[in-house]
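Anyone up for a design puzzle?
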């Protein structure tokens, strides 16, 4: 998902300006060549006409200009020397013709090379677009796969508020069915029901955003908020595996110009990897998520775990596509994380602290008001 910059073709001069200028120069050379008695090979200056037309990048026009210059040279020769064809005049005419022919050939060869270059640039642009499309598709597929892996969490997140709504609904009915209905108590239960319904709706919105095919436009986003939302999506997963979570968020919260859903995808990937590494390590399961200011221009997010840690060898290749040490792994998670972070102008890397575990971290340029508000 790298921000692909289209390779730009060469800027060509305006055709009408070039043709007018070429005609004016050709006429001027013709006048000097045919109507003056200067004993110079003035026709050599026709090469300027050929080069000028060639600069517009039009092959047929360049060939036409070359033949036109040859014709004008011969006409000029006939007109100025019709009474006496001296050896010097013939030689000057031949030099001019030779200059025009050589220049035209070189200009045509140059045009062919430029056309080939343009074709290659076009192919490169198409390849870049195809790559960007496939990376976006892949990111989408991985998001769906991640949601599949989170199925238990997702189901829990949605069923919990729904179960609470049912309980509160029952309670409200009981308060109302009393011989002396307890309106205040019933109202409290209904308020609770509304709160739970909103919670369920938020969870569904988050899941729908993750499952959506197309990403949204980048917007000014609060990184602490993105971390909290991602944690909410995996919270049940963490609880289920007795993973102790500690957060340490920077105040004021760093903001970055980013696609919220893509960033959530990065965080969920990192958290799920940490969870798996901690399950494999059979030790204490501690996960720490930190946001902080890296420097004036960058915010940093750190996901640190007490898992297996990362060997020196793996640290260099774990972000490569298809690298995995897991039996069921795809090896795409970190590669997509890297594409997303780099597309946002950031950098992602991994460290293995001396006291064990892994520390995956990325930095993003902080938003300096270049992005639209969300
Ligand atoms: P997958 O999870 O399918 O293997 P990833 O690209 O997400 O693909 O991860 C690639 C590899 O990086 C993992 O197989 C694992 O070896 C290593 N890795 C990633 N995160 C951690 C971590 N927190 N601790 C230890 N190893 C990790």
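Challenge accepted. My sequence:
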């Amino acid at each position: 998902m790298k921000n692909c910059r289209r390779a730009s073709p060469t800027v060509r001069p305006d055709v009408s300006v070039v043709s007018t200028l070429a005609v004016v120069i050709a006429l001027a050379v013709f006048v000097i060549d045919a109507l003056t008695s200067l004993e110079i090979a003035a026709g050599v200056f026709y090469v300027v006409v050929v080069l000028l037309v060639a600069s517009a990048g039009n092959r047929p026009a360049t060939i036409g200009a070359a033949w036109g210059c040859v014709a004008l040279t011969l006409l000029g020769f006939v007109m100025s020397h019709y009474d006496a064809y001296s050896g010097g005049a013939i030689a000057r005419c031949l030099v001019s013709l030779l200059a025009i022919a050589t220049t035209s050939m070189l200009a045509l060869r140059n045009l062919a090379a430029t056309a080939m270059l343009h074709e290659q640039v076009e192919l490169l642009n198409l390849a870049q677009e195809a790559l960007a499309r496939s990376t976006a598709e892949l990111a989408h597929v991985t998001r769906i796969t991640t949601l599949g892996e989170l199925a238990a969490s997702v189901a829990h997140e949605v069923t919990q508020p729904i179960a609470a709504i049912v309980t509160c609904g029952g309670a409200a009915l009981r308060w109302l069915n009393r011989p002396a209905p307890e309106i205040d108590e019933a109202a409290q239960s209904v308020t609770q029901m509304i709160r739970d319904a909103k919670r369920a709706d938020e969870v569904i919105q988050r899941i729908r955003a993750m499952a959506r095919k197309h990403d949204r436009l980048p917007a000014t986003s609060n990184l602490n908020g993105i971390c909290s939302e991602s944690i909410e999506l995996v919270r049940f997963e963490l609880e289920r595996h007795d993973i102790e979570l500690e957060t340490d968020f920077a105040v004021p919260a760093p903001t970055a110009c980013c696609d919220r859903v893509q960033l959530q995808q990065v965080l969920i990937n990192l958290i799920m990897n940490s969870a798996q590494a901690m399950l494999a390590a059979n030790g204490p399961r501690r996960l720490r998520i930190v946001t902080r200011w890296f420097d004036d221009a960058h915010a940093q997010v750190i996901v640190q775990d007490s898992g297996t840690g990362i060997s020196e060898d793996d640290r260099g290749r774990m972000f490569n596509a298809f690298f995995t040490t897991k039996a069921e792994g795809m090896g795409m998670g970190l590669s997509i994380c890297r594409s997303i972070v780099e597309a946002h102008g950031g950098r992602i890397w991994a460290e293995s602290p001396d006291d064990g575990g892994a520390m995956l971290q990325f930095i993003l340029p902080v938003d300096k008001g270049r992005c639209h508000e969300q």
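A detail worth pointing out: The longest strand covers residues 286-295.
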